[in-house]
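Hey, I was hoping to borrow your eyes for a little while. No rush at all, and the record is pasted right below:
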Amino acid sequence: MHNILSTSGFLWATCALTGGDGYFSGTDLSTGEEVYSINLGSMITPEGFAVNKNNTIAWIADSYNDQIIIVDLLSQSVTGSVTTLQPDGLMITPFQVALSPDETRLYVTGDTAKTLEVIDTLNNIRLKGIDLPGHARGVTVSPDGKTVYVALYNTDQIGFIDIATSSVIDTVFVGRLPMEIIISKEGTTLYVANQYGNSIATLDTGTKEVAHIMLNDSPYSIALSASERYLYVGTQSLGVYTLDLASAEVISSVQLSYPCSSVGVSPDDASVYAMAYEVDGPQPTPVDVMDSPTTTIIGTLYINGIGRYMQITA
């Protein structure tokens, strides 16, 4: 008999509550219990977020108020915020964030500005942004912290940003509407979800060579197994796919009851999690738990409110 619980890890999620409040949730995957329950305030639209390695601080993008909300997870309270509004008052509409390996910088992409915002997380201040050649959504950082990669969805490219010079040093075409990106542990490969291209692009960060794994669906979210053998792909047409990265093939898939907003993998590689898409999802939001790598559904967890983004940490 399968157990929906994992040996370790936390499932974090941003959610919207009825009435307009924002909400941040943390579930202990070893017990299945929600142990972090944080109201972010009224008229908040929480989006992508980052959690530090010790699971003590979270930085959450608020697209409605154009800010990054800072949360102390020990006291389960909001301790501050940093605006992402442009100097002229224009919004960037922040959606995704990435934390540097040393946790001193937070990189923020926004839908309505061609900039990468940079926040000093030690002093909670906004630094000078970096101009981009297009609008960005997905963002990740190399393991050495020297390069930031952004998914330029309106130009179908990945942008390479050199942190030392605060400049874009290269762009590579990867496919139609790249939205989400993740990086391998060694920093040698980027995995890109091409939403309109019905494909996953693999990009060698050294040679800049691109290969594609084709899908019969539109990928919306991706998660890499701890072993880096499998990539899990969530789609908005109710499916989750398992890709074997050695053979570059789809080896399993499952149909869900709802479109998928986010996928994640437990630290022990035993389970895959898929959170329902917020537009059509009910309250509380179901998170289907699947066996890895077969994606056989073995149970369901529930998150308070309407789920928006989810990720799993150790």
Summary: The mean pLDDT is 94. The first strand starts at residue 10 and ends at 16.
